[in-house]
Amino acid sequence: MTLRNRAVIVGVGESEIGKVPHMTGLGLNAQAARRAIADAGIKHTDIDGLLTAYSFTEPYFMLGSVLAEYLGIAPCYSASVIAGGASPTVMLNHAAQAVNTGQAEVVLVCAGENRATGMSRDEAVGALTAVGHPYFEAPCGVGIPSLYALVANAYMEKYGTTREQMASVCVSTRANALKHPNAHMKKPLSIDDVLNAKPISDPFNLFDCALISDAGGAFIVTTPERAADMSGTPVYLAGIGEAHTHEHLIAAPSLTDFGAEHSGQRAYSMAGLGPDDIDVAMLYDCFSIVPIIEMEELGLAPRGEGGAVFAAGDTQIGGRLPVNTHGGMLSHAHAGAVGGLMGVIEAVRQLRGDAGERQTPNATTALVHGEGGILSSHCTAVLTSEPR
Amino acid sequence: MTVIRPGDEYLAQPFWTHLANGTLHLSTCEDCNKAHHPPSPICPHCRSFNIGWKPASGKATLNTYAVARHAVHPLLADQVPYTITLVDLEEGVRLVSGIPNGMEVDLEIGMPLECKVVKIDDQLSLPYFLPAGAADQDQ
């Protein structure tokens, strides 16, 4: 069964972002959920499905059930998805399946944590260290930045991506974030700022690494038929596909070819669309090399040429292929699984024509790519403003 | 030298025990004779549960490397900067390794490496991979 044109996102909401010490992590989820519910023009009692991800700061055993308690809802469909940064797009896939199999009619998808104020910076980074293999990677002092640095160096060697091109990813997303009223980062960033920042793990400096924010995000999935009764403007799921190739880098099939190519092909195939149809793209950007790799794997640029697209400024608002118009995880917000969820929210706003000064003119087709682990789990979604 | 000690796990114990005795062994299928890493109760090549341990040749190729400059864990604060390597072993498995602190080594992706087991303390030794010749250097 295809999901093409059979599920819509009808409401989106994001919480306060940045340092939000007066809110808990699940409080940020609840705030985003309330805003998404209002955006959809529904009542909280209309929600009969709930999908959540995970939390490092508030590691509840049954996170979704706790959020259901907060919101005063008793869904007939509830699950927590753990696919790292790919979780939000994977949850979109699950939600679309649920509303098409009668498991639920209206699914709330939520993620978010208070990583900036709910844990110390060292605790946050230490928790991320656990993503490496505890027996075979941790003793070598490998944290997430170094695991991605291993990928970056392999990719630069094979495809000729340059350090300056990676810095231009940070500059592009920052320029975009300055046009988003809720973005965590508020100051301009130059190539020199990136190249001269505190070194983290070669080739990455501080600004090549995603933010540590307090943030929550939510969106609401239903069927086109059910959305007809709701005031929120629906955005259609045209295609979606996943690829899960490994968890640990030591087990990755390759250091220079990843699953994004396959998840992308599955999504394009379902949608009956291709890379040339994409007006605006939300690419997972935990580190500056990653959107370059994804752009190439998803066919938005030939292999080895993604970096040049960023360096030319084509990915900035008003450019040939705007990427992460909200500012991405490098400049808008990153707090666990919600990082990639913000890409879904921004794609919906772009397709509705609601993106204000960030608006891509006449955007009808958007791509969202989520990636979790160390380029381990991939999920690509193609969204459209009208059924295709 | 301080390291983040590996977790104590049943499947992994022989890996560390062999290293503590000075040799690198790999989890290897007794049926298809192929190695895999990390150790697993089931062979990912032929799905056999008949798994044993065999010595590795120690020959490897440098897949990629990185230099960590920011300590991601308090235990590593006095280690930075340090080099992390990803090495492809002749047996077809990949290991995360590194260069021992204080050692000057010129690395180039694709270069051949040899295993050198370095004793950290009585319980723990780690497998490092160094260019031919460098493996004989005193640290």
Description:
The complex is a heterodimer of chains A (388) and B (139). With 388 residues, chain A is an alpha/beta fold. Helix content of chain A is 35%, strand content 18%. Chain A is built from 13 helices and eleven strands. In chain A, helix 1 packs across helix 2. Chain B has 139 residues and is mainly β. Chain B is built from one helix and seven strands. Chain B has a five-stranded antiparallel beta sheet with strand order 5-4-3-6-7. Chain B has a two-stranded antiparallel ribbon with strand order 1-2. In chain B, a hairpin with a 4-residue loop joins strand 4 and strand 5 (94-98). The model of chain B has no long low-confidence stretch (mean pLDDT 91).
What's the quick description here?
The complex is a heterodimer of chains A (about 400) and B (about 140). Chain A is built from 13 helices and 11 strands. With about 400 residues, chain A is of the alpha/beta class.
